[in-house]
Structures are given as structure tokens and as C-alpha cells.
Known about the structure:
The complex is a heterodimer.
Chain A: E1 2-4, H1 10-22, E2 27-32, H2 38-43, E3 53-57, E4 63-68, H3 71-83, H4 86-94, H5 97-104, H6 108-122, E5 124-125, E6 128-129, E7 133-137, H7 141-148, H8 150-157, H9 162-174, E8 181-185, H10 189-204, E9 209-217, H11 229-238, H12 245-273, E10 279-283, H13 291-301
Parallel strand pairs in A: 1-8, 2-4, 2-7, 8-9, 9-10
Antiparallel strand pairs in A: 3-4, 5-6
Chain B: E1 6-9, E2 12-15, H1 17-22, E3 28-32, H2 39-54, E4 57-62, H3 67-72, E5 83-88, E6 91-97, H4 100-111, H5 114-122, H6 124-132, H7 136-151, E7 156-160, H8 169-182, H9 184-194, H10 206-219, H11 221-235, H12 241-253, E8 257-263, H13 267-282, E9 287-295, H14 305-314, H15 320-349, E10 355-359, H16 368-372
Parallel strand pairs in B: 3-7, 3-8, 4-6, 4-7, 8-9, 9-10
Antiparallel strand pairs in B: 1-2, 5-6
Amino acid sequence: xxxxxxxxxxxxxxxxxxxxxxxxxxxxxxxxxxxxxxxxxxxxxxxxxxxxxxxxxxxxxxxxxxxxxxxxxxxxxxxxxxxxxxxxxxxxxxxxxxxxxxxxxxxxxxxxxxxxxxxxxxxxxxxxxxxxxxxxxxxxxxxxxxxxxxxxxxxxxxxxxxxxxxxxxxxxxxxxxxxxxxxxxxxxxxxxxxxxxxxxxxxxxxxxxxxxxxxxxxxxxxxxxxxxxxxxxxxxxxxxxxxxxxxxxxxxxxxxxxxxxxxxxxxxxxxxxxxxxxxxxxxxxxxxxxxxxxxxxxxxxx
Amino acid sequence: xxxxxxxxxxxxxxxxxxxxxxxxxxxxxxxxxxxxxxxxxxxxxxxxxxxxxxxxxxxxxxxxxxxxxxxxxxxxxxxxxxxxxxxxxxxxxxxxxxxxxxxxxxxxxxxxxxxxxxxxxxxxxxxxxxxxxxxxxxxxxxxxxxxxxxxxxxxxxxxxxxxxxxxxxxxxxxxxxxxxxxxxxxxxxxxxxxxxxxxxxxxxxxxxxxxxxxxxxxxxxxxxxxxxxxxxxxxxxxxxxxxxxxxxxxxxxxxxxxxxxxxxxxxxxxxxxxxxxxxxxxxxxxxxxxxxxxxxxxxxxxxxxxxxxxxxxxxxxxxxxxxxxxxxxxxxxxxxxxxxxxxxxxxxxxxxxxxxxxxxxxxxxxxxxxxxxxxxxxxxxxxxxxxxxxx
Lengths: 302, 391
């Protein structure tokens, strides 16, 4: 499970993690559940249907397949599999029952989504697991606790019956060593605060927290301290660049801002370390998250 | 369509947020966009400016403010009522944080007698739905907006939108909830309850028996009974549910409302902004413009990243300090160029939508002073272009 505050790059990190886990000839499923088609956009392909499709090859012959789960299709599939409700399922849809079950009934939607993840994670073919791992581009940090804590919500409504059975099965898997919830953050105040809050919430819910992943971290540029305007002027002249006062003052200002920012980041890194979880840093991708960028991130996650 | 709040600056229409915030005709400002782009901060900054600079009695309705921003707005207690943050001459800034469960409770209390309300509150379905249903927050935000507007105490209401799974939920959820509470499925569930409740589907036709078996099997009998009780209890009071949702929707379409799209110059946020702009235009919602948040700028725009890196290499030994400064500049230039490229996806698709850039700050905004300096001094306007603007 990969979660984090909105805007921290969850989808990118989830895709990179899938590539990492698939490297060396494995098969990994990358799943999204929020109907955003973020995976398709990341890989530059057509919107994903409710079907597992190969989206990338990993190093050493592995492959990443992707699936966009929507609750309606998941419910119809579930009904068909367990109740053989082909025609009746369609009748339910006409009557608005599917709409009801997937949007109104609290928690049911989340059980369906996490239930599909469980199905893929535990699926076997000829005695072997189909997927080495399933990576979920999960809902953002603000909703992750509720999303993963499926039993509590549904247990309030269904004390017996299939919803209860299904949600208990999912909850058991989510709390087992097979699951890890990774938290993506940036070196910025608000995402780190939210990471700390989410960590506390997940711990309280006894959900297994994995790593804290700092995304878009800038490599240090070996700036020794603030360089004087005179040194700048001399350097620019030596390099054959314009050394007019505006350029010199501009570069001076930018270096000053950079150092202030770096000081802040040093403090924030300590804050992240203080969370007591293993930390991984992923570099900022100057060219954005294209294939080469994803490969860089995948290598950093290894 | 656009242009009421725009003026021409350099090559694009600059969004003039002050004109919006000062306009007495504008009574509602809705800030919307993807998660994590600074919607709440933008909403709070707009409200503070309207109160302090334009003397308006303003209330900002926040959904899920970061803790320190909430504290700076005096929102330490979640009591679902606007609280006075400060006065400035005629202007007043009030702020409130949405408590969706309490808002739902208040709707129930306002429309039914105390006994019935107690019954509804005790229903497990209501409990779950009022606190966790994925559309409840969106619906209640709109409900609260309707309430604030009805109070007629405010010159301007600034609304932050919920961090939805998709940016469209707050437009769709109220209608969906209304459709559900008003809809066929409920009538169906309700009919037997009204007929005595012995059998959920006693009177339904044979073609529905398949449906009833399916529902009972999948959802379970007990849940169905709770739901039926819930629906029955709500039926009397939510007769006009759809009407309320539609009224709110029409208020949003009215020119008294101004939608501010908030985005950062990053792929995801810009993509959402494009999607949202399309949708607002299609729904004939008054889109005032785009607030482009956290934009990086360079003090030396004429020096390219490639030239800087080449020069840094050349003087690395002789002038290490200057070389480092050039590497800093190169990194910043790369970022600036990338942000401009990403932003162009929006400006090319919506050339007539004005926008304003808010520079990136090293730290988050968490006090009134930070909110005050959120919008930079407006760029100076240039005379109207000689050729007609592509509006």
C-alpha cells in the first residue's frame, strides 16, 4: 500500500515500487482505486479498463501489470463469482442497487476495493501465486485509515452475512505480515505533519506501517556557504558569462534562498528520522516522471 | 464569458483577485482543485483580504485545515459555527470548520420533531452514513453554504472544497445523495415498510423477486431492516431533498458566485485543473480564473541551465563558490522551465481563463501575516492590446 498527502507523488512512487519488485523476472500488479486513471497517465497509455494489463517491463524480464478497480465492476464480478448473479446483477444495476451498494452504503465500497486487492494478491495458478506482489496506489493519507479499517465500518451495519465475512477476510490480510503501508512525503512541513498523524493513526489501528519515503528530494549541490558577490563576479568573468550587477545580485539572491531552503530541509529530515520508521529518499526527477525517471526511482527503491 | 476579472498582462489575462473580492455583486467564492495544492490557504487568504482590504463582512468555510492554519484562524474548537477572527474597520473575518456529522444532525433536527430525531440518531445506518459516507462531506459543505447564505449576515462567503477523490465530487455528490434518497430504490425498499414491514418485498411483482433475493443475500436481512427503518424515518423530512440540492446547484451557477481554480505547476494538479475547467464551463458555472500556487521564479531568467552547468564545470577548480552558485541557478532554471511547460498545458487549452501566479515560499503559511502576503502585489497592467483579445 502506498499512501501520502495529496501531491506528494504517490502514484509515481507506487509505479516505481512495482518496477522494483518485478525486477529479475517477477510479475507484479499495480492497482489504483480512485478512478483517477493516474497509472495510465503516468505510463502514457489509454485509460485502463477493469482488466489486468501489462504496462511495463521491468529489469531482468519482469513485468508490471496494472488494474484500475472501480467499485461497480468489482461488485458485479463478486456477485458473479460467489452468487452466479449474471442477469440479476444487471437488474440490480437498473434499480440503482449497485449505485447504492458502491456509493451510499458506508464501508461496502472500500471492502469491494480492498477485496479485489486481496483476490489478486492471493490468486494462484497451478499451485503458484500469480503475482509476486500487489502494489496499491492507495487513497491519500487523510482517508487511508478509514479505507483500510474496513471491518469497523461494515461491522456497525452487518453483524452477520456475506459483507461481514468478506470484510473480516480482508482485514485479516491487511493486518498480516503480507501487508506493508508505505507513507510518501515531501521535505515540506505539511506533508510531514500529515505523515506523522497518519503513522499514529495506522499504528493505533494495528495496520503494518512500512517505510517513510521522501519523494523529490534534492541532492545537495555542495554549496559551502554563501558566496560573496565579488567571488561571483570573478567566477562569471572567468567562465566568460555576463557579470553585470543584476546577474551577480540575482545569483547571490538565489544562492541565499537555496541555503535557507537547505537549512529547513535539514531540520525536516531530522523530523522524519524522528518518526522511528525506515526512511528512503527518492531524488527529484528534473525531467519529470517519464520511463527513465521511473527507472531511476525503481533503482533507488531496491 | 471570461474577462470580468481579467486584464491583459504581457501575454496572458491576469486574474485580478482583488476585483473579485471587492465586487459587492460577488457573494460566494468557491476554491476548488486537486488535493495538496493549497485550496484552504487560498480560501483563507481571499477571505482575510476581502475583510481587511475591502471592508466586507466575510466568512470562510474550511473543510479540513492543517492544524497550525486552523489555530491561526482561531479554529481550535470544532463547533460548526463561524467564529470571529478579527475586525478591520467595516470588514470582519469569521472562520469556521465544517463538522459534517453535526451539520447532518442539524438538518435532521430542523426538519423533524425531537422524538423522531432521536430515533434517527439511534439508527446504525444513520450513524454510519452521517460520519463516513463518501458523499456526505460534499453534501454537507453545500448544505452549510446554503445555511450561511440564508442567514444573510455575510457580504461574502468563501468556501474551501473537500479533498475529494475526484475534484468533481462536490458538484456530483449532493445530486447523487438526493437522487438516492428520493429515488426508485428507496421507494422500493420503503413500500413494504409502509405496508406493515412483515416482508420487505411482499407486494413487489414477480420480476422483482429475483432482485429481492439478491439484495437479501448480498446485503443481509438485518442491514436491510435497519436501512428500511432509516429510510422510513427520513422520508417525511427529506421530501424536498432534491429541491435543496438543486437550489444549491443553481446558486453556484449564478454570477454572484466566483469559482477559483487552484493548482500548482505540476502535472497531476494541472491535469485536474483542466478537467475541472472543462466541467465548470460545461455546467455553466462562473469560472473566474486560476490561482497558480507555489510557482518558482528566477532572478536571472537570461542565463540558461545548460550554460550555467557548462560554466560551473569550467570554473569548478578556480572559483568553487561561484560554480556552486551556478549549479544552484541551473537547478532552479530547470524547475522553472518545467513548470512553465506544465502550466502551458492549461493556458493552451483555456487561453481565455485568466490566471495569477503565487510564488513558492520556503515554509507553509500558518499565521495571518503569512496569509496577508499570500497574494503578491498585482503586476502592472499594460494598455489593452491593439488586436482584439481572443475571448
